[in-house]
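Lecture notes, part 5. Sequence design as translation. It can be helpful to think of inverse folding as translation between two languages: the language of shapes and the language of residues. The source text, in C-alpha cells, appears below.
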C-alpha cells in the first residue's frame, strides 16, 4: 500500500515536465540559421566557441562555459564558427513545469537567453546525469531527472549571487561586451571606457579578462570575425566590402586575421568545407 502511494505521488507530482530528447556531443559543428524551436530546451556549452542569436537581437560570442535556453516558436541562429566546434550538452522538454523553469527560472537569471557558468564541472555532471536517465522512461527515473533539473536551476542561481560591488563590475564588463558585439567595426578605446567607469586602464583590462575570458583586444577581434562569418552568408558581398563592414580598411589584413582565427580564408569559408554542417532553417 505504501509503495503504491509513493508511486502515485511520484507519477502525479513529476508529470508536469516531460523529457523529449537529449544528448552530449563532444565536437558539435552544426550551424542552424533561423532555427524555429519546437519545444523548450536547456543547453550547455562546456568548451569551444559558439555564436548565438535570439530572434533579431544581437549575436553573442560564447567562448567560455555558458547555459542557454530556447522557447517553443522562438527563432534562434546558432552554431560553430570554426572546425573545432563546441562541447554541447542539451535536452528538450515540455509541460507546465518546463514553462515555469524557463520563464520564471532561467530567464530570470538573464533576459538575454543565456548565462555564463562559473562551475562547469558541476553543471556538466548534472547534464550527464539527466541525459543518462532519459532512455529509462520509468516513473522513478522521471522523478529523479526532474529533481536534477531543479538542482541545475538552483546551482545557477547560487552561481549568479555575488557581492554588490562584484555584481556591478560584472554588469559593467558585460555592458562593454555588448558594445563590442553590437558594433565591432568601430574602434574600441579601453582607456576611454576605463575613464567612463572611473577605473584605471590596467584594472579594467585585468578584470575584463578574468570575467570574460579574453582581453578586450581579443574579444574585439573575435566579434569582428564572427560578424564576418554572418556576412559571408551573403553571396553578393565582396571580401573587400565585407572587410570594410567589420572594421578593416585593408582587405589583405582582414583576410590574414580571418584565416588566423578561423583556420580558413574568407573565400574558402564561404565556399564551404566538410567540417561545417548547415542545418535546416
Amino acid at each position: 500500500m505504501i509503495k503504491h502511494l509513493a508511486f502515485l505521488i511520484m507519477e502525479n507530482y513529476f508529470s508536469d515536465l516531460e523529457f523529449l530528447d537529449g544528448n552530449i556531443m563532444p565536437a558539435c559543428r552544426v550551424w542552424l540559421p533561423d532555427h524555429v524551436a519546437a519545444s523548450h530546451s536547456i543547453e550547455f556549452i562546456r568548451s569551444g566557441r559558439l555564436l548565438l542569436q535570439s530572434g533579431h537581437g544581437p549575436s553573442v560570442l560564447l567562448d567560455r562555459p555558458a547555459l542557454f535556453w530556447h522557447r517553443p516558436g522562438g527563432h534562434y541562429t546558432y552554431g560553430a564558427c570554426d572546425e573545432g566546434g563546441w562541447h554541447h550538452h542539451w535536452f528538450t522538454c515540455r509541460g507546465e513545469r518546463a514553462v515555469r523553469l524557463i520563464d520564471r527560472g532561467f530567464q530570470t537569471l538573464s533576459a538575454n537567453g543565456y548565462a555564463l557558468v562559473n562551475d562547469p564541472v558541476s553543471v556538466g555532471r548534472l547534464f550527464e546525469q539527466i541525459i543518462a536517465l532519459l532512455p529509462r522512461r520509468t516513473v522513478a527515473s522521471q522523478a529523479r531527472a526532474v529533481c536534477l533539473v531543479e538542482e541545475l536551476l538552483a546551482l545557477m542561481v547560487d552561481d549568479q549571487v555575488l557581492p554588490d560591488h562584484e555584481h556591478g563590475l560584472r554588469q559593467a564588463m558585460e555592458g562593454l561586451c555588448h558594445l563590442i558585439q553590437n558594433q565591432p567595426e568601430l574602434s574600441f578605446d579601453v582607456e576611454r571606457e576605463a575613464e567612463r567607469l572611473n577605473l584605471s586602464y590596467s584594472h579594467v583590462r585585468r578584470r575584463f579578462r578574468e570575467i570574460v575570458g579574453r582581453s578586450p583586444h581579443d574579444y574585439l577581434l573575435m566579434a569582428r570575425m564572427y560578424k564576418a562569418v554572418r556576412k559571408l552568408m551573403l553571396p553578393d558581398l565582396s571580401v573587400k566590402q565585407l572587410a570594410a563592414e567589420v572594421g578593416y580598411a585593408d582587405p589583405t589584413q582582414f583576410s590574414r586575421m580571418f584565416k588566423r582565427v578561423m583556420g580558413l580564408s574568407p573565400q574558402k569559408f564561404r565556399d564551404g568545407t566538410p567540417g561545417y554542417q548547415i542545418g535546416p532553417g
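The translated text above is only one of many valid answers, since several sequences can fold into similar shapes. The beta strands are 18-28, 30-36, 40-48, 50-54, 60-62, 66-70, 75-79, 86-94, 114-116, 277-278.
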